[in-house]
Specification:
Four copies of one chain form a homotetramer. Chain A is α/β, with parallel strands linked by helices. In chain A, the strands form three sheets. Chain A has a nine-stranded mixed beta sheet with strand order 16-15-14-13-7-12-11-8-17. The first copy, chain A, has a six-stranded parallel beta sheet with strand order 3-2-1-4-5-6, with helices on both faces. A two-stranded antiparallel sheet of chain A has the order 9-10. In chain A, helix 1 packs across helix 9, helix 4 runs parallel beside helix 5 and helix 5 packs antiparallel against helix 10. The two termini of chain A are 41 Å apart. Chains in contact: A-B, A-C, A-D, B-C, B-D, C-D. At the A-D interface, strand 7, strand 8, strand 11, strand 12 and strand 14 of A face strand 7, strand 8, strand 11, strand 12 and strand 14 of D. Strand 16 of chain A pairs antiparallel with strand 16 of chain C.
Chain lengths: 369, 369, 369, 369
């Protein structure tokens, strides 16, 4: 029996709640899950969400969740600046933590989180769920089998359009205090994929741009935008592969795009998160007249798709990725091998993001470590 | 509080369990759900699944589920030939029933099911979940708004390849006793979409085909295939629109395809279930030089996508459709309007399928009613 | 040296002129082509077009072209109703004829054309250029190699939207005198592909529909539309394969679509003329986890693409198909084997179209011959 | 009457021959074209090609073509290193020159070519045909109309796989003497599009990579590869827009890809040369629930498509782009405005390529001029 605590019930909070709720029904092979304690900003909201999400207890003080003796693991899904204090408290209370990404706005805070994880001996996992899709896992298998030979180049893009409207007013994400911009918001996701599939980034050369110099301030006037919606980086991996990592949160028309192009000596792979139940594979196994990108639909033989649906081509959803991540977390808690970004690899992602920002500031190539 | 019973835990049984488990977390506006009683073929399996799916009680006799006084609604997800007896028993026990499609192999049995539903006054719903996707619902909205003008033609295809391998051995789906073949397996799905979007089918002209005349019998020898993997129908709807309905369960490469092409006087719509988070729309609103099919990604403004994910383009999964259906069922139980195929409309679907089979047998156009 | 005559300079006339002009540059292996004599409706237009297209002589009387002793072969690209008289005259003058499709509005006239061809001993070819694309030729090769096993089912659609606007006025294509409608305009094209790839159609069951009952008459009032923009047919081929042939010339959004789906015992093929430099192939050669439709781009190894462009994926154009057809015609004139629809196979196409119309009139299956 | 000379009859030579042959038939509004004089490396080949391509005279000495008094304009389609001497000779002979791209391996030679062009007063055009497609021209129109608002970001990729096979032997393109690698081969093409649509590049930051360190030498042994198949650049345009330009000639699966992503304040545009008869447009004109990338098929209203085909969606071919370029050249010769990359803009393309190479060598941002 696993006792679950949840802090925060926004986009990711609900996503965690659904994952905890359905993980045993989907996988069968995990212990019973008990939804113990939910924390939110007010008593009223905490009680309302606890009722909806099926938690037994509700607190307006998140420390109540952390300290609840029936809680074994805590999902931390609050805004990024809250992660360090909460995650460290969870670990210091001797519990496992499942914290949403990124770790923290400041690198030193992320380092402190990793130190707390190491000191605790507990599992400290991050919510990088895109690495969990059956297609990405199958890509990993294909790369391991050298299905496309030796990888020699990589292009990754991540784009959405939630900041694309120039008429939308200035808000906190336009302030420098919120971070660099698209680097914090987006780049961490493709970096989780890059690290999972290929290993760490060695050096970066980054350019950033602001599509809109200023924005209307509610109440009148305009204010200069301080963050960068666009970041484009040349990258070189530790394994010698070169590539590019391009992100844009003002990209009209893109809704959840993470496109990956992987070029190898015997073929190539293309993946796009907007169609994450598909995978494009080009191989040179058979005769040239029939070579072409094949669109492979996710199917039961691409595990763990089979645990959700026994028929091919029916499609997983975004929330299902979090359920897979939840099961990996449980496996990790149980001491089994798991596919998961923990605080140590998470810190490397953040290190790379900060290196990119420094590269832009100094207009030169920067070694990540 | 709704007490849930579940009979059967295969593909659809697990899907129902997940829907019941997550519907309150997703929608918030439904009563608490209690997983009361699960029925399976043996004590051992029933207990195992009850533990996995979170049910309190388990029975090897499905009547135990039906008669449990704590059960308010029963999900029937057993093989088709079991539906009539079980669904009628549920209704006669004064409970709501949520029965997987199709209703029954024989039309008379389906009629008896509808009679039982009417006599009971309870909700009797069928598991036609494809009508629940945000894209299909948005198509319905667009048609209602005459976004593509007056619809004048329709083409629907449903294809999978699970029967495509000629080396697979003879099994019960190849026996005439199992039904007509693709008509039973597949045609009911597109018919649920056609009825939901356009109303009933008036007349049909159907051809059927067997890709493989015989198949190997386990143990040696070959046996003639008695069912038809392919059925192609010309159709005319009651509203005057003509079209085609083509199904094939031996279509190599197709995994969960349900393609719909809708032609109107001002535009057209194309949808494919294999990419059910997308919708193709061609309209003649603006100037000709920019007209083209637009690929619309499902987003929070296509309800109820927003209840699952607050960000566009992230994608629902197949299982989420059943969760939406579950919520519609609950709304219907509560007396609110709902998007749902109940036994009355379900019977019309089956009537159409039997008319198609008769049309093929008699090689002529057949009026559905 | 081949002396060319051309009658008609509309869409297809210009297309023939371009084919004759470039065929030797493209293929190298054909004799020199001399553009001898062009016929048009007036002296002025004939002279203007002759100058543009590079013809030595121009006539307002098409018989001048036919009788010109320097002319060896005549392209007939006038409206359909002119084909019989002109094509027969060309053949009777002892010359080869390259006549645009379809042969003639009335079947008896088409029969007379075939009789004239047989009597003359000259080559009598029809302008069914869609069979000439490298992708279609490669499909033919793949079928011959049994790359997708034994073909068991077929679906073909042809759609455009040039008649889709309900506000467009009544014109001659809406009169019964012009023919049946989409059957004449469109069905002949997919039939040319079906016959080339699979052989003849044995029986048909056709439905037709009018999207718009009447149309505005220039000058005021409305007039009932007499032709059918939509025709949908169940078909059975002589080789036992069943399928469907669906055409619609009021299909908003479709511009030049001819989609072919071919299902076999070991795979399937999908082709769409709107992207005719591509081909979708699904095969079951390799392991299931990597099976998917592969998008094969036309390339030099798909002959005769190589005669136009030595690099893959650069793309042929619609007019290039006529150039390939022209070379096949020349090969046929020279006595070599050629891929070409001649009057004998063309007559079978028309026989099938008339059978479809009869099937609709009589609401029953009709044997083509 | 325009007298044409042609030097070289490889890929581009044949393409020029086809363009000259068909330009008057296609466009009607250009003077008669006379194929006067063809130059090739040997008498035999020159005579053979002259016969095939319809030229009156043939020479093994290219100077014969240049000096022929009947020649008004010379197509130079020989290897890049021959361009300077030949193009300058043509211009000094007082003739117009149509030279394939790029101008020359060395920047100083390209400068000399521009100087010769200026001194001659003749038209000196380059074969950047990708700017001629109806889709690219329509993109230019849309940008001019601010259909996607103010452009703020740009991503361009060009990929093919003709160098992707690691087992292919060392040849001259792997020697440093041939140039930088993909920069020379590919980058000039996307730069022609960038300059045409957006203006000049101001500064660049480039990385390059070799997928294969060495290759087999015919006869035995291996030799180090000296050129770079991959080049990735961050770019900033003179108009303030930032972006990326990524090229790879070892990209398995890509055959003729040039993908352009243009992001603006009101929408975005995506184009891929592998499907150059299509254009993806996302606009925010209408209500959000129907926004999506629309696939616009090239059609007669996207000029000059109409001069080739009067029906939409039928598709131009790669060779047709050269025919459009030929007509633009003729218009330019006649003194009319034309869409054409002449030596002045061509030199800017080369200047940018050399700046990229310098940026890589010095590992820093470089100003193009």
């Amino acid at each position: 029996m696993i006792g679950v605590g949840l802090i925060g019930t926004g986009f990711m909070g609900k996503c965690h709640a659904l994952a905890w709720t359905s993980v045993r029904t989907v996988f069968g092979d995990v212990p019973p899950i008990r939804m113990v304690h939910l924390g939110e900003a007010s008593d009223e909201l905490a009680r309302k969400r606890a009722a909806e999400f099926g938690f037994d207890k509700a607190s307006a003080d998140w420390r109540g969740v952390v300290e609840d003796p029936e809680v074994d693991v805590v999902s931390v899904t609050t805004p990024n600046q809250c992660h360090p204090e909460m995650a460290i408290a969870v670990l210091q209370a001797g519990k496992h933590v499942w914290c949403e990404k990124p770790m923290a706005p400041a690198f030193a805070e992320a380092e402190a989180m990793l130190a707390a994880a190491r000191a605790s001996g507990k599992v400290a996992a991050l919510g990088y769920n895109y690495i969990q899709s059956p297609a990405i896992r199958h890509i990993r298998t294909l790369l391991g089998e050298k299905a496309i030979g030796e990888v020699n180049h990589l292009r990754v893009e991540m784009d959405e359009d939630f900041m694309a409207d120039p008429d939308a007013p200035f808000f906190w994400k336009h302030e420098a205090a919120s971070g660099y911009g698209a680097l914090d918001d987006f780049a961490v996701h493709p970096l989780s994929l890059i690290q999972t599939l290929f290993g760490r980034v060695a050096s970066v050369m980054c350019d950033m741009a602001r599509p809109y110099a200023d924005r209307a301030v509610p109440g009148g006037g305009r204010r200069a935008v301080e963050t960068y919606d666009i970041a484009s980086s040349l990258i070189r991996l530790e394994n010698g592969v070169s590539g590019t990592l391009l992100v844009n949160r003002s990209a009209w028309g893109r809704k959840g795009r993470i496109q990956i192009q992987i070029f190898g000596s015997r073929g190539s792979i293309v993946f796009d998160q907007e169609r994450f139940n598909e995978l494009q594979l080009y191989v040179t196994w058979d005769r040239p007249t029939e070579q072409g990108y094949r669109t492979i639909l996710a199917a039961p033989h691409h595990q763990p798709y089979d645990r959700f649906i026994p028929a091919p081509g029916h499609g997983l959803g975004f929330n299902d990725l979090k359920t897979i991540e939840c099961r990996e977390l449980i496996r990790r808690i149980e001491g089994a091998p798991a596919t998961l970004i923990e605080f140590d690899e998470g810190l490397e992602i953040e290190r790379t993001v900060h290196a990119m920002a420094r590269s832009f500031a100094e207009q030169r190539w920067v070694a990540v470590r």
